[in-house]
Amino acid sequence: MYLLDQLRDYECLPGHQDVKLVLCIQPECKERKRIICQQLCVPYYHKHHKTIEISSIQTFFDELIKLEKPQLHVSVQESIDQIRILQREINHLIESIITKLVNHFGKFSLKAQKLAEEFQFKQTFDRLNSLYKDLPEVATFGDKIKIKLIKPLEPVSLDAALKDCIQKLAGFSIGKHDEYSQKPEDKVNFFSSHCRIIQGDHEIWCIAVGKNGTIASGGDDRRVTLWDIETQQMLWQTKKHKKAITTIRFSSDYQTLVSGSQDGKFKIWNMITQELIKKLQAHDCQISYIDYGRNNSLLMTASWDKSIKIWNLKEKYESTSLIGHDDIVYVALFNSECSFVVSCSLDTTIRFWDISQKPPQCEVMRGHSKRVDWITFSPNGKYLASCSSQEKLFIIWDPITRQQLWQNKTQHDPYRIAFSPDSKLLATSHKDIRIYDMQSRLQVGDPIQGHKFWIWSLKFSHDGRYILTGCQDKTIKIFGLPKQ
Predict the structure, then answer these.
(1) Sequence-ordered list of residues with C-beta below 8 angstroms from that of 172, at least 6 positions apart, any chain
(2) 253, CA 20 to 30 Å: which among 19, 159, 291, 409?
(3) Nearest to 403 by CA among 439, 367, 353, 376
């Protein structure tokens, strides 16, 4: 098949080679890449999304072109539906590229306009529209169905149009090899020059980015609050915990949200009905971090009681404990395959736990001499970042080899750390925010002025257009341009 030949060297993500490619046709999909691999990308980035194999697209059109007359009215309607789906989803891909350009440049510059015009392929698919006229008309009379041919179906070759579209859509990117690419320092200016504020009534201790432009927050008001990023308006609140909320996390499908508290309890909330699903006394003292894993079937809690617990949500919330840290555990993360866990602690260590072994095996990583405040994986899975505000230091690790790649002794106290969605930028925060380019390993631009007090939560939005921060000054700040 020529489509598979055309995409032979295409990689949806680095290292994803020799895998079956599919086209995501989920209307509400927010991912930038819609041509992805079935084995690796679909379970992680497009879970529960409707997809079509690339090979089946050509097969469908080959069969459609060979069709001289319909045998059954059902097959005719299915053909029409398939054409409409393909046309709608391919046009959606085109629109997403234009939107990507708008988001990338902020506003349409002359270069951006020219680049956008290059992707206006809709006229190419006039031949798709012509198929509607070539297909037979289906008329229904009561319980009987009459099929009337308007005219014989003429062979229509979509090879050139489909090949051109797939090639350009799959190959489109804004990166270092693109002459229209935005420089890292321009991105920093993009964030620092536009700031909006959500003003709360209580201290903001944690935030989590939701779907459809929403953000959840928790703090000493003991409630989870859902906000609209664009309007900065509150959408709804949960009932109260007994003590302050210290950590919150959305499931990967955004159907549930879990909140952890100072009293050691976590609560799971249904995001559709806004009802409480489950509450459990997980630890004897404060839960510091929560993470979902393995298609949301596992839940992990890290605590000030020096322990980490993994809860099986499908087996009556049975738990496995990871014991080894000598002091407060601040963060514990699943890797993308849930084969190991990484944790950091007040005891100055980072620990890798092989949870595929029974009992789990622990490997201690020593790179910091003082407490490790935060760790995070890069979205592409290539890096693990750790930071220590007491040392004024952050370290980039290879999570596979467990080796340090590089480190940076900063001029401020990096208390929180976060990667951009494309893994090209790294943000650290204390009271201000500093951005580093992962390629050059240097700070980009001037510090972004943030809050009067410490930033307790630092996130990038899913599309990379915003940096979001939560602070004990009772505000959430949104750095980045609003939608045009």
Answers:
(1) 97, 119
(2) 19
(3) 367
Euclidean distance between CA atoms 147 and 458, whole angstroms: 61
CA distance 281 to 296: 19
Tell me if 428 sits within 8 A of 171, measured CB to CB. Answer: no
Radius of gyration of the chain (CA): 25
Beta pairing, strands 384-388 & 374-377: antiparallel
Count of Cβ atoms closer than 10 Å to residue 317 Cβ? 13
Which of 303, 382, 370, 313 lies closest to 343 in space, CA to CA?
303
Assigned token pair, 470:
């939560």
Locate 231 and state its tokens. 């309007």
Longest dimension (CA), the chain: 81
What single-letter DSSP state applies at residue 325?
Answer: -
Cα distance between residue 128 and residue 132, in whole Å: 7
Phi, psi of 67 (to 5 degrees): -70, 120
Instruction: Quick: pLDDT tens for 112-171.
Output: 555 555 544 444 445 455 544 544 444 333 343 344 433 334 443 444 555 555 455 544
Classify each residue of 304-316 as buried b or exposed e, where b means 16 or more C-beta atoms within 10 Å of its C-beta: bbbbbbbbebeee
pTM score of the predicted model: 0.63
Which helix (H) or strand (E) is 77 found in, with range?
helix 73-105
Q: How far apart are CA 385 and CA 371, in angstroms?
A: 14
DSSP alpha helices (H): ranges in 172-301? 184-192
- Tokens 């514990």 locate to 332
Tell me the pLDDT tens digit for each residue of 272-310: 999 999 999 999 999 999 999 988 999 999 999 999 999
What is residue 232's DSSP assignment?
Answer: -
- Length of the chain measured in residues: 484
Cα(204)–Cα(217) distance, integer angstroms? 7
Q: Tokens standing for 354?
A: 């092989």
Backbone angles phi and psi of 483, in degrees to 5? -65, 145
Q: Which residues contact 366 (CB under 8 A, 6 or more apart)?
A: 348, 349, 350
